[in-house]
Amino acid sequence: MTALPRGGRPAEALVAVEASIEDRWRLFLAEYGVAAGTKEETDLAEMVVADTSAFEWRVVDAALIRLSCAECGGELGAGPTNCGNCAQADGFRFAAIEIDRPATRPGTEHGLRVATAVARSRHRYGVRARCGFELGLPGLLEGELPGTPQAQACRAAINKLTEEECERVTSFEEVVRLSSRRVR
């Protein structure tokens, strides 16, 4: 599990999403009659990564977790930004199937997937992107998708923060409070 340095509700939401990824992988293994921790599990993960567009995003993310990058040795898709193999795997991650959960606005699942990818591979993204996506995790997990004006207002407020503040805040309310004190 990924420990989110900012803590608070975003960290709790990431734990919940990662648990849902692991739960979905266990079901996937059962569907194929494969035991965890075996060579067959690795083979299945490689099959998923070979055509990410054929599988639901949680299955793809779970498969990537289980594979090592031949170039950098890290978790496939989560290695350093200069690793071409990881960059390619991270890009293919976004070809996976997204099925919005019942009673959520279309696009909520996409937002949750992007926010999860950012939070799990923080070093691949800028400080302001990390701040916005990580703070958005709890709402997305609860089925809330901000509209364009709300997202733009949040981004404008985040842009007024210092990089240190971006790493420290744990809620959009805190972002608004801090950003209202300064003009940029």
How would you spell out the order of helices and strands?
HHHHHHHHH
Average pLDDT confidence is 94
Poorly predicted runs are none
**Helix count, per DSSP?**
9
User: Radius of gyration, Cα only, in angstroms?
Assistant: 17 Å
Helical/strand content category: mainly alpha
Number of strands: 0
Strand content: under 5%
Main beta-sheet strand count, sense and barrel state: none
User: Which descriptor suits the 3D outline?
Assistant: globular
Distance between the termini: 37 Å
Helix share, percent:
55-70%
Topology diagram in text:
Elements: H1 8-32, H2 39-50, H3 57-65, H4 84-93, H5 108-120, H6 127-141, H7 148-159, H8 163-168, H9 172-179
What features would you describe in this structure?
The chain has 184 residues and is mainly alpha-helical. The protein is built from nine helices and no strands. The longest helix has 25 residues, at 8-32. The model has no long low-confidence stretch (mean pLDDT 94).
What characteristics describe this protein?
globular, mainly alpha, about 180 residues
Task: Write a brief structural summary.
By secondary structure, the protein is mainly α. The chain contains 9 helices and no strands.
